[in-house]
Request: fold
Amino acid sequence: MHQNTRRNFLRQSSLALGGAALFAHPRVRRVLGSSAPAESTHVRTAFSWIPAAEWGSWYLAEANGDFSANGIDSELLHGGPNTPAVSQIMAGGGAEIGLAADELELINSNAEGSDYVIMAASYQRSPFGYCWLAETPISEPADLVGKRIGGVQGDQIRIDAVFKINGLDADYEFVPMSFDPQPLLDGEMDLMTCYVTNQPVSMRMQGHDVTAVTFSDFGLTTYGDVIFASKKWLDDNRDTAVRYMRGLIAGAEALVADPESMIPIMMDNYGADAELDEEFETAANLEFIKLMQNDFTDANGLLAIDLDFVRDSVFPAYEAAGTADMPEIDELYDVTIAQDARA
Reply:
């Protein structure tokens, strides 16, 4: 699935991004308070979408000086609806560190010859999932059978996976659509794929009673916005990766401690030219923060990955969904970088 055709479309559909390149949004630095070590390492981070609350940890890590205090000269590169997948940008040397919606993009890339390694995860569950009007009788995966499911072309991979993981025949009608949920409100489908931090937020702000679940809630258990780099880069720059993660973790902690602190920074700097809706971004930010925390992060810190959970739930879910060429867990993940950053 193309990871860039997603989220925030409804509130940002007025953007005429057209064929915008990954570097269409200028680099923004607003480092406050801390002085960097004598030598700083330039690190580019590639996002799959335009400025949004989704990247709040990075915005605060820059604005609060957490990156610079750890010797990281940070450059944040935003994408758009017509940019390549971040894994492709990384393969072309366009960034040192990237974010993928979940592990599947990297599993597939590595099966084709890449060497990506996941260091951490922004979200303990991917925001990707389903939403429907509350009056629609859906409460469990079995209720999806026979339904009309709207989604962007490519979403069928995960829709089918949810059916297969739950031992159900993939008996549904796929209704192609854009990101605008209006067809759902008009009754053209029973439910739609979404980011639970996006379309449901917009519809609730408009007064609609909407139910939303992540794919993880329905059995396709995945992390969200996984943070990765190539194995070669990590082997050559492990100290840089540790310092980067130390700054990013500080940004994540600041975001959770004071969610509203990120909003003016995003609106005035990173999203100044993106025509963001502040009310929407404020509401979406709270939904993203809910996905950042669970019992494991309470014990091990924000952005942490639980390899037992990967072994017992994430990989079995992908395997049950028919994903071939599954890698070894210790080849795809290196959680020691974030662990060293916290030491």
